[in-house]
Amino acid sequence: MVSATAGTTVLGAFDPIAEIADVCQEYGIWLHVDAAWGGGALMSKKHKHLLAGIHRADSVTWNPHKMLTAPQQCSTFLTKHERVLTESNSSCAQYLFQKDKFYDTTYDTGDKHIQCGRRADVFKFWFMWKAKGTDGLEAHVNENFENAEYFTEKIRNRPGFQLVLHEPEYTNITFWYIPPSLRGRQNEPDFKNKLHKVAPKIKERMMKEGTMMITYQPVNDLPNFFRLVLQNSSLNKSDMDYFIDEIERLGSDL
Question: Which residues contact 177 (CB under 8 A, 6 or more apart)?
Fold first, then answer.
């Protein structure tokens, strides 16, 4: 099996699914696509190219409770192989799934899954889709992308801000805030150690003041950086400006 990722958690990166599918097809390998986070882009005609080739996957995971903000938990597992779940998971427990019922027992889906009696998460998404429509979900996704692009361009050349990924693929914007005391000191040996402490301190202040919540983390040898992930289409450009101004306010004396 090859597992491709469509929308990584931290950077929002997308694997080239179509190219991976070519290799899997040539060698008869199962292709799984983890689109838990990035699958929401499929709702947008403008951005669905990020998942080009996903129709060739043997299986896909997708969490509509992420980008599409369906009520948690809402996770889906999709496969084009009609009987593979039953063949893989069914134990035919007679005390649960009798096969001599008066109706078609293929509707008893519990025996297809490891979770057995788990709720059918997809109903939440189905009702939401019926309420908002495809156009409504597409507008939601596009608004998040537009806010992400606006935020990225606002901090691209702003003093004190430095992008980790200069051209984000998704609505994840990763960046450092470099307070005035550290600017121009990038070549000093203890710069990374000091910068590593900045994001946690600003996060502490924003939570204690109750103004906003933005996560942070390191990656490999990179010091802690902020990760603004946009999935709420009720936000607008003034909110993006607020995020920037508030980070500056909370970190100006560090």
Answer: 160, 161, 198, 199, 202, 226, 247, 248, 251
pLDDT tens for the 254 residues of the chain, in order: 999 999 999 999 999 999 999 999 999 999 999 999 999 999 999 999 999 999 999 999 999 999 999 988 898 889 999 888 888 888 877 777 777 888 887 777 777 777 777 777 788 899 999 999 999 999 999 999 999 999 999 999 999 999 999 999 999 999 999 999 999 998 999 999 999 999 999 999 999 999 999 999 999 999 999 999 999 999 999 999 999 999 999 999 99
Query: What is the set of domains in the chain, with CATH numbers?
Result: 2-128 (3.40.640.10), 133-251 (3.90.1150.170)
Q: Which residue has the tokens 């603004």?
A: 228
Residue 69 near residue 139 (C-beta atoms within 8 A): no
Output the DSSP codes for 181-227. GGTT-TTSTTHHHHHHTHHHHHHHHHHHHTS---EEEEETTEEEEEE
Entry pTM: 0.90
What is the rounded distance in angstroms from the CA atom of residue 54 to the CA atom of residue 49? Answer: 10
